[in-house]
Amino acid sequence: MRDKLKDKFLASHYLQDNYLKLQNLKQGTKSVEEYTREFEQLLLKCDLREDETQTLIRYLSGLDEHVAYVIELHPYSSLDNLSSLAYKVEQQRKSKGKSPLSKPFTQPYPTQRTPNTSHALKTI
Fold first, then answer.
1. Separation of alpha carbons 18 and 47, rounded Å
2. Is the pTM of this model over 0.85?
3. pLDDT value at position 105?
4. Could you report the per-residue pLDDT of 33-73, keeping only the tens digit for each?
5. Cβ-contact 90, 67 below 8 angstroms
6. 3-state SS of the chain?
7. How big is the CA angle at 41 (ends 18 and 65), to the nearest 5 degrees?
8. What is the per-residue pLDDT for 117?
9. Number of C-alpha atoms within 13 angstroms, CB side, residue 119?
10. pLDDT level of residue 99 (50, 70, 90 thresholds)
11. Separation in Å, CA 54 to CA 60, 67, 110
């Protein structure tokens, strides 16, 4: 019944367009929340039934590479868990620029001491 309703009321290219949008979805200048919302909407529109691992990798591959790199270092098991990690990483990156501790330590290294040669061994 559901498939018949889709065939009758949806344009033939509707699913193809949404699959294409999902396949090419990238975070770009969007926030993690905006990216996650659009990702979930496209999943629903496509009625995509894939393994959860495939969905997680699809989501991860569209994230900003700096965010994805950090997330890959942490365990995740669901889309909610993954998007929560992405949000935390994004917030950390935003606050890092405002923190005084984010500046590199610039104190020079202590100079290396030269050995004292005044006490050289006497040869016999």
1. 10
2. no
3. 46
4. 999 999 999 999 888 888 999 999 999 999 999 999 999 99
5. yes
6. CHHHHHHHHCCCCHHHHHHHHHHHCCCCCCCHHHHHHHHHHHHHHHCCCCCHHHHHHHHHHHCCHHHHHHHCCCCCCCHHHHHHHHHHHHHHHHHHCCCHHHCCCCCCCCCCCCCCCCCCCCCC
7. 85
8. 53
9. 3
10. very low
11. 10, 19, 52
- Taking Cα atoms as reference points, which of 73, 71, 91 lies closest to residue 81? 71
Structure tokens belonging to residue 122: 């006497």
Tokens (6 digits) for 58: 């699809």
Segment 65-92 mean pLDDT: 92
Q: How far apart are alpha carbons 82 and 35 in whole angstroms?
A: 12
Nearest residue to 27 (alpha-carbon basis) of 12, 40, 44, 39: 39
46 within 8 A of 18, measured Cβ to Cβ: yes
Q: Do residues 65 and 26 lie in contact, with contact meaning Cβ atoms separated by under 8 Å?
A: no
